[in-house]
Amino acid sequence: MTMNNVDRRSFLKGLSAVAGASILCVPQGRAASAKAQVVVVGGGFGGASVAKYLRLLDPGIEVTLIERETRYTACPLSNEVLSDSRDIKSLQTGYERLSRRGVRFVHGEVTGIDPAGKKVSTADGQTFSYDALVVSPGVDFNYSAIVGLTPEIADTRLPHAWKAGAQTLLLKKQLAAMPDNGRFIIAVPKGPLRCPPGPYERAAQVAMYCKHHGKQKAKVLILDSNDSFSKRGLFEQAWKALYGYGPGGMIEWVSGSSGGAVEEVNADTMICRTGFDEHKADVLNVIPPHHAGKIAKTAGLVNSGVWCGVKPDNMESTVHKDVYVIGDSCIGGEIASGNAFPKSAHMANSQAKVVAASLVAKFNALPAPIPTYTNTCYSVVDHDWGFSVVHLYRVEGNQWIYVKEGSGISPVNFGVGKDAKPVPRTYRKIEAQYAAGWLNNLMADAFS
Amino acid sequence: MHKIILSLLLVGCASTAAARPDIEPLARTCNGCHGVGGVSVSGPMPSIGGLPKEYLKRIMKQWKYGERNAVTMDRIVKGFSDDQLDALAEYFSKQPWVPVPQPASEAVLAKGKAAVEENCRDCHGLTGNDPDVEVPKINGQWSKYMELELLKYRSGVFKMPHRKMKQAAHDMKPEEVSATSRYFGAQGK
Known about the structure:
The complex is a heterodimer.
Chain A: H1 5-17, E1 36-41, H2 45-57, E2 61-67, E3 72-73, H3 79-82, E4 92-93, H4 96-100, E5 104-107, E6 110-114, E7 119-122, E8 127-129, E9 132-135, E10 139-141, H5 151-156, H6 166-177, E11 183-188, H7 198-212, E12 219-224, H8 232-242, E13 251-254, E14 262-266, E15 271-274, E16 278-280, E17 283-286, E18 290-292, H9 294-298, E19 302-304, E20 307-309, E21 323-325, E22 330-331, E23 333-334, E24 339-340, H10 345-363, E25 372-382, E26 385-396, E27 399-402, E28 408-409, E29 413-414, E30 421-422, H11 425-447
Parallel strand pairs in A: 1-2, 1-9, 2-5, 9-21, 11-12, 11-17, 12-13, 20-22
Antiparallel strand pairs in A: 3-4, 6-7, 7-8, 10-18, 14-15, 15-16, 19-20, 23-24, 25-26, 26-27, 26-28, 29-30
Helix pairs in contact in A: 2-10, 2-11, 7-8
Chain B: H1 2-19, H2 23-28, H3 31-34, H4 53-64, H5 73-76, H6 82-93, H7 106-119, H8 121-124, H9 143-155, H10 163-171, H11 174-186
């Protein structure tokens, strides 16, 4: 590397400041004031991170972030709101600090994308031209997959709370009002789902609340459409030690093939039905199956099941040129080996950095950077018990390679077989603390 | 004039093209937990920007080769080559060290200072910014992180190869752990 960091940054600043130099990078027909226009759809972790990093790496790029809400509520660790161990305010942020970086924040909903004309339009009739478009709309829910469920019912009576916010608070209220021997049912849809360990962390957080609020006889029943789950060994170990797991314990898990897949719910009788059985709940937390955010579908970006295919080098859509899809809507990673990108905030943040670096290189006619994709995701099951999973992917020959040496969950035990010893509690205690630090840093890395 | 600047910029372009500054995109993956430039904004996660290169190299390789225990980092580093770890160490060591002084009461500071004089001063200096290439700066490091690190040294269940640090951590009285961490956390430049 012949140019150090500072030199490169001033080099880029110089490029945008010197009018004569702008011929290097400004696209045809564009005013010389901006090197390029990037429009970002969606202000979650993916969208906010890409907007921030574009401005950080090259202030000559104009960035417009279009988002439906003016405040964002982060999902990671939002299960802690249910157990009363986290204030939802700690998950909320605005876009002021991104604006201070020069990101133009537009409060609105993108309803149309014209990839040929390279422009997007919003519900209130505005249009925005782009040189590159980043689509990061998160997931939307397929309510009709479950008989008896509608968006209105989810908002008022059977909250999924799978987008943190009002439904999280409704679910918390329902839990607090639940009879002491009540039954809290979590219905988990078939994967891939946003935050793969989330439902199981939620079971622990609900059990934690019950344990400390006079509801020791309560039950948390997980009705799962899947046959296994993320960090399973860690969750089962913790559930057993902390709350009792299995028949007679507070937490019970029913797999998809044992009849866990919920097909129908009734908000009046609070009964949910699987192909096998009926279960009555006091609180019914039905998480509907997900798909790529609506705008991704409208724009024709969905081409791999219900998700958007992207290129390993830079997350460009495999459908439309100059359109990049990041976050929960995309599908990537080493899919064939079962190591697809997890749908997580950290993964979206990492993908965003790959897109930002790639676009900055492109607009400055620099060589394409080598991408690295990383994820870290902590789950907290008690005040002093946490654990994590890490993922690492590199790209080789236009393919994602899952680097298993740099990936994996916290150890369940030390040693194997009859030599296996439980991991000391200190490990779990430290990871519970790290979880809070990770959330704060990740939010800052995306939104400030 | 513009022509001269333009040709200089083109030279700049060409040399950057030859060099492929790949370490920056890789280093950016650390920002999610450690902050931009390695300046953490949250207590449990350490700032790493501006720490000595030799220190960063050593701990990452010790984690990678199982000579030192961490709860998360030892998994992450195993995915990177030694060259990548060296380059990351070099990159972060060149970032400025940005202390984040965290307020503490006079009583805590006095107690912490006394403990530091006894246990830490030799290596870290009285304010935690000893310039020794082997010693991490801890002035204005996050006190929560330092408390957790001391917990690792004191618990006996973590492999922590630095014998002198291990001894010093063991010599502390339980009530000195928090005061020491908060004392160093309160220091500025």
